[in-house]
From TrEMBL:
<keyword id="KW-0007">Acetylation</keyword>
<keyword id="KW-0399">Innate immunity</keyword>
<dbReference type="InterPro" id="IPR038371">
    <property type="entry name" value="Cu_polyphenol_OxRdtase_sf"/>
</dbReference>
<keyword id="KW-0597">Phosphoprotein</keyword>
<dbReference type="GO" id="GO:0005783">
    <property type="term" value="C:endoplasmic reticulum"/>
</dbReference>
<dbReference type="GO" id="GO:0031347">
    <property type="term" value="P:regulation of defense response"/>
</dbReference>
<keyword id="KW-0395">Inflammatory response</keyword>
<dbReference type="GO" id="GO:0005634">
    <property type="term" value="C:nucleus"/>
</dbReference>
<dbReference type="GO" id="GO:0017061">
    <property type="term" value="F:S-methyl-5-thioadenosine phosphorylase activity"/>
</dbReference>
<keyword id="KW-0963">Cytoplasm</keyword>
<keyword id="KW-0479">Metal-binding</keyword>
<dbReference type="InterPro" id="IPR003730">
    <property type="entry name" value="Cu_polyphenol_OxRdtase"/>
</dbReference>
<keyword id="KW-0576">Peroxisome</keyword>
<dbReference type="GO" id="GO:0005507">
    <property type="term" value="F:copper ion binding"/>
</dbReference>
<protein>
    <recommendedName>
        <fullName>Purine nucleoside phosphorylase LACC1</fullName>
        <ecNumber>2.4.2.1</ecNumber>
        <ecNumber>2.4.2.28</ecNumber>
        <ecNumber>3.5.4.4</ecNumber>
    </recommendedName>
</protein>
<keyword id="KW-0539">Nucleus</keyword>
<dbReference type="GO" id="GO:0045087">
    <property type="term" value="P:innate immune response"/>
</dbReference>
């Protein structure tokens, strides 16, 4: 069943206001008639001319809206100067109400353009269907129907314009939850490497569990790639790296490692390079973002280490790649574990906890319970030390000076970090990043 209806009046010129009123009246009448029990939210999208007040733009519509009593509380007019701004505002309204099934009623000529905007601003979480504005007549129109046949492909210049319009609008949005904050380790020399771990502040993501500097998009989350790209642009500006030379691991929760400059695997949780100016990154939202730096051979790496990757030895696999590819001495490699879920909060089923108990009994607390507490950080340190990394070359939550700590518990600090464990499926993601300075 349709949860929301979007009526697109954006492109109709001002001299057709009478037609707009009539079309809107007929459309709302049909929606109200067909939705007397389960009224959908209705959004009317129209253009706000430059220099005009928002109130003035809507005045001619209000008389036709007041008469629709059953829709009144679920009816909103959204005026903006661009389609990107109007549609993004409506997306915010949909997300506030957790709505995902949307019917768009619009002029036929706008359909392909609207689909292009939707492809950029929405993810696969949402379902859309389209209806021509002049064809509103039957109650059946408000049911989920087969998608319309695709129109002709938009000219490349139109797609480029849409991307540019969206980008300019997103760049204009204020940062949320304060300034962008980057945590840095004193272990990694800043004369050779640029590095850091992000927190959740200073981006534009507005959904509570993603707010505000979410740095990962997927088909299961409501943050589209364009929003993540804007968050990354702001991070790059603050940190001083080139977002066009940014490479993030392709998470598989395993131990494959990508060597920059060689054939890229389909999936990998570690990545290494000796190229200057190339930024490597690993995500973490409970899993550990691990950074590696060799100031002698001037090489670096990043790894994503969840509980599965930890058991599979992804951190030592990354170290071994640096040794074999760049001639690094394992005793020169510095390793920093970033924000991740701590042993205070993280539980695993007994069968999985047993694997950590085998590494070291101190990695598991309340071992006899159904879901023991597990310390994936301690397990990572132990495996690194067994592989030859010097204990003093590893920074984690065991650091003596807590003012230098960057290995905070993500689940314990909802104001600073995202956490899958705490927030559920639609969670945000922070990253650890590192590059070799020019």
């Amino acid at each position: 069943m349709v949860e929301a209806v979007l009526i697109d009046l954006f492109s109709l010129p001002a001299n057709l206001q009478n037609n707009i009123q009539g079309l809107l009246h007929n459309t709302l009448e049909t929606i109200e008639k067909c939705s007397s029990i389960h009224a959908p939210c209705v959004y009317v999208m129209c253009c706000q001319r430059q220099g005009s007040e928002r109130k003035g733009e809507q005045e001619f519509l209000f008389p036709h809206l007041r008469s629709f009593h059953s829709l009144k509380r679920r009816l909103e007019v959204v005026c903006a100067q661009t389609t990107a701004a109007a549609l993004y505002t409506i997306k915010q309204r949909l997300d506030e109400k957790d709505l995902s099934i949307i019917k768009i009623i619009l002029p036929t000529l706008r359909k392909d353009l609207m689909k292009a905007y939707i492809d950029h601003l929405f993810t696969a979480v949402y379902q859309f269907e389209f209806e021509d504005l002049q064809l509103v007549s039957d109650c059946e129109d408000l049911q989920i129907c087969e998608p319309q046949h695709e129109g002709q492909t938009l000219p490349s210049q139109d797609v480029a314009f849409i991307r540019s319009e969206i980008q300019m609008y997103l760049e204009s949005l204020p940062s949320l939850k304060g300034e962008l904050t980057i945590l840095r380790s004193s272990l990694i020399p800043d004369d050779t490497f640029l590095h850091g771990f992000t927190t959740r502040t200073g981006g534009i993501s507005y959904i509570p569990t993603l707010s505000s500097c979410n740095l990962f998009s997927s088909s299961k989350r409501r943050d589209p790639q364009v929003v993540v790209k804007e968050n990354l642009r702001r991070l790059a500006n603050a940190a001083g790296f080139n977002p066009e030379a940014f490479h993030r691991v392709k998470v598989d929760h395993a131990n494959a490692v990508c060597i920059m400059g060689k054939t890229e695997p389909d999936n990998y949780d570690g990545i290494v390079t000796n190229q200057k100016g190339v930024t490597l990154a690993a995500p973490g939202a409970d899993c550990i973002p691990v950074l590696f730096a060799d100031p002698v051979r001037r090489a670096c790496g990043a790894a994503h280490s969840g509980w599965k990757g930890t058991l599979l030895g992804v951190s030592m696999a990354t170290v071994n790649a640096m040794v074999s590819e760049y001639g690094c001495n394992v005793k020169d490699i510095l390793v920093v574990l970033g924000p991740s879920v701590g042993p205070c909060c993280y539980k695993l089923p007994q069968e999985s906890a047993k694997e950590f108990h085998r590494i070291d009994p101190k990695c598991v607390r309340l071992f006899d319970s159904a879901s023991p507490y597990v310390d994936i950080r301690r397990a990572t340190r132990i495996l690194l030390e067994r592989g030859g990394i010097l204990p003093e070359n590893i920074q984690d939550d065991s650091i003596t000076d807590q003012n230098q700590n960057v290995t905070f518990c993500t689940a314990c600090h909802p104001d600073k970090f995202y956490s899958h464990f705490r927030d559920g499926t639609n969670f945000g993601t922070q990253i650890g990043f590192i590059s070799i300075k020019d």
